[in-house]
Amino acid sequence: MGQRIFVTGGTGYMGSRLIPLLAARGHDVLALVRPGSEHKLPAGCTPVAGDALDGASYAEHLREGDTFIQLVGVAHPSPAKAKEFVAVDQRSGLEAIRAAKRARVAHFIYVSVAHPAPAMHAYIAARSVCEEELEASELSATILRPWYVLGPGHRWPYALIPLYWLAERIPSTREGARRLGLVTLEQMLWALAEAVDSSPADVRIIEVPAIRAAEQLKIGK
Questions:
Q1: What CATH number did the domain enclosing 60 receive?
Q2: How far apart are CA 215 and CA 165, in angstroms?
Q3: Domain that holds residue 200
Q4: Could you give the CA distance from residue 202 to residue 107 in angstroms, rounded to a whole number?
Q5: What's the rounded Cα separation, in Å, for the pair 134 and 138?
């Protein structure tokens, strides 16, 4: 049966592609959007005007039993955007978690980042704060931890694939290479869609190997 899903970040790189997929699977999708930007949302959803940095601006649209998918984040993360990670990624995540808790949503899905890692410490720190808030919220939740998502406009890391192949076969580097491995946009979208259909009892964490494996479920269906 279709679920009622509330999505933030619906005009972004991942959200704009996830919404049509969820709609095609029979879900009723509501998407948060800044007033005046409704035209940027893909087809298959109901726009909800509000501010991702202010949970009170959209709280009235959440219902008990909803699934909440938090996708808001700074575009093209880099070490130079440390302040933005706190102001946007962290704040929007905390606001979403608190609004979802008050509404008693059934399932909160959060896209975090793989960690620990040798780089992007500020980005990881902001996302980790949200993970801790989610753990303390007592919400049923799924946390996905990709490292880098390959897709349109995000293809330069393809050059690193031979290095990853080698690192995954050396015992001393195998665990880190798998945890910080590359995933495709399609793998992320399918992992998110599958997460919607399999709500956990508490908090479930999906690392890179499981994100990659989610695509195999698609092949089998």
A1: 3.40.50.720
A2: 19
A3: 4-219
A4: 9
A5: 7
Q: Which residues pair with 49 in a beta bridge?
A: 33
Considering its fold, how many domains does the chain have in total? 1
Q: What is the pTM of this model?
A: 0.91
User: Taking the alpha carbons of 199, 195, 4, 89 in that order, is the dihedral positive or negative?
Assistant: positive
Give per-residue pLDDT as tens, 1-13: 689 999 999 999 9
Q: How far apart are the first and last CA of the chain?
A: 17
